[in-house]
Write a structure and sequence with these properties.
The protein is mainly alpha-helical. Helices cover about 60% and strands about 0% of the residues. The protein has a domain of about 70 residues. α4 packs antiparallel against α5.
């Protein structure tokens, strides 16, 4: 093997004692660096995949809206269509005040409120086009 023989120190031992002690920089990673290397990485934030929205309406919803439209159109046969539109407008205005203070929470209550507003719009349209 090709090993170099060690040289004896040429400095006198007394001179070595007078010289301040110097430490060499470490050649290996520190304890903190080693511990960081073996720690698991921080967990990533959970990513929730968006799900498809449910159906926007059902057949029952369509039937309730159809009752609102039918009520708005049928009122013109019970009385003059402009008077029916005015009465339905007052009922809708009263309903608006109730909805403002007690908003509908369930889907059915929102559907009934929407049907009442739709019936009023249909009754006004019927009164305009019928011309009584």
């Amino acid at each position: 093997m090709n090993e170099q023989p060690t040289k004896p120190d040429s400095i006198h031992p007394q001179e070595k004692a007078d010289e301040p002690l110097r430490l060499r920089l470490p050649e290996c990673p520190s304890r903190e660096e080693q511990l960081r290397e073996f720690e698991p990485p921080p967990p990533l934030p959970a990513f929730v995949l968006p799900t498809a929205p449910p159906f926007q309406f059902s057949v029952f919803d369509v039937m309730v809206v159809m009752v609102g439209v039918a009520g708005g159109l049928a009122g013109g046969t019970w009385m003059p269509s402009d008077i029916f539109a005015a009465i339905l407008g007052l009922v809708t205005l009263l309903g608006l005040a109730l909805v403002h203070f007690f908003p509908p929470q369930s889907h059915f209550a929102q559907l009934v409120w929407g049907s009442l507003v739709l019936a009023y719009i249909v009754a006004v349209g019927a009164a305009i086009f019928k011309g009584n």
